[in-house]
Amino acid sequence: MLFCIFLFSAITLKCVFGVESVKSVSVTEGESVSLNSDLTEIQRDDEITWKFEDIMIAKIYGKDNKSRFYDEYTDGRFRDRLKLDHQTGSLSITNTRTTDSGVYKVTSKSSGTPLNIFSLTVYAHLPVPVITRDSSQNSSSSSSSSSYCSLLCSVVNVGHVTLSWYKGNSIFSSISVSDLNRSLSLHLECLDDSYSCVVNNPISNQTQHLNNTELCQPCSGTSVAHTNKLNKSYFTVIRLALSALVGVATVAVLVYDIRSRSLQQEQTSLSNSK
């Protein structure tokens, strides 16, 4: 019984919509996007209609290839930004805006059913995340450890994004938020590696790298390791310098020895000639 109901529902949906699935399309704000009718040519007695969220926005007539745009139905939302292909009836939207996101449906008069259905998502340009110190967290922890710190990574006026801390090339922590006009933040308490903050949506990302010395001291273990590394580098430089000095001194002794022998030979030669 359930199978019959499901089968009937599936057939009904296919008859009503004329397509098997909704096609997802994503672009960044300001880009152009083309939504295809999948027609190779509009028949002379046919009409192609485009709707946005079931509101008519454009129509093209096959008999004279004339197109009409219904700006009055959408309060001028798409004014001067819609174009129709006179051969296929495909719709192009220029200079896209986040408010253009929604469902678009193209219908043929001859078939009476949708030729295509698109779910368009227009993403806003992502800002570069900002990394700051969390002064309240740092002040409260100062008594327990002088090297302890807490950082905030924030972005504002963005939606449908994921904000993540990366430790090296691995995700350290992350949060996803769909709300618009909301500040996102993450805490990071201990700096023991290279860190970066990344904000991303499905089609783009922005990264801010953390410079440890600008915001807070590294963890105590990292401090010791860093000091040991510096000490090793320091002693390496000293050894190289000493080796260079020894080399110079050796060359000087050899030069002096050679000159002394040459001078003795000259004096011996002069004595014999007399």
UniProtKB/TrEMBL annotation:
| Membrane spanning residue stretches | 234-256
This protein's UniProt keywords: Membrane, Signal, Transmembrane, Transmembrane helix
Please state every residue range assigned to the domain named Ig-like.
129-211
Signal peptide residues on this chain, from the entry's feature table: 1-18
The answer to keyword Transmembrane helix applying to this record is yes
Q: What is this protein called?
A: Ig-like domain-containing protein
Species source reads: Sinocyclocheilus grahami (Dianchi golden-line fish)
Higher taxonomy: Eukaryota, Metazoa, Chordata, Craniata, Vertebrata
